[in-house]
Amino acid sequence: MTDTHRSPSGYDLTPPDAVERARLEADLTAEEARVLLSHGTEAPFCGVLLGEKRAGVFCCRECGLPLFRAGTKFESGTGWPSFTQPVDETHVTAITDTSYGMVRTETVCARCGGHQGHVFPDGPPPTGLRYCINSVALEFVPEGEPLRDPLQRGDGNA
What we know:
This protein is α+β, with helices and mostly antiparallel strands and 158 residues long. The chain has helices at 18-26, 30-36; strands at 56-60, 66-69, 73-74, 82-83, 92-97, 104-109, 115-120, 130-133, 138-142. The chain is built from two helices and nine strands.
């Protein structure tokens, strides 16, 4: 990887190569793979991170990229963890989703492409956005603990 693409916050956004991707995917549970790799959705009100209120960061479960800070999480009443904005706008990619006869904006991890959820224009200030994310697509890292760096890119403390 000689040509790396870094986000403004300093994280390497270069997609995993085939060997790295196989290793990352092998580490996923069946439910994590269904959501992250097959664009699934977990049932509402059952995700383990729905009630998480500690300070910290929510990262992509597949590749470890930080996606949302705890301070941007809010109770939306929808049954999924909701956030007003990503850690870094370049860490979350928006894709038009026309499945199920609807037009929505899907959100995926900008590094590995793992499905996270959807973003809607009905959130609170300051952004007015509601990033509605599957718990199983995230991992929570409490403030002060090192971030997981499964791609060994030295991003854990960037």
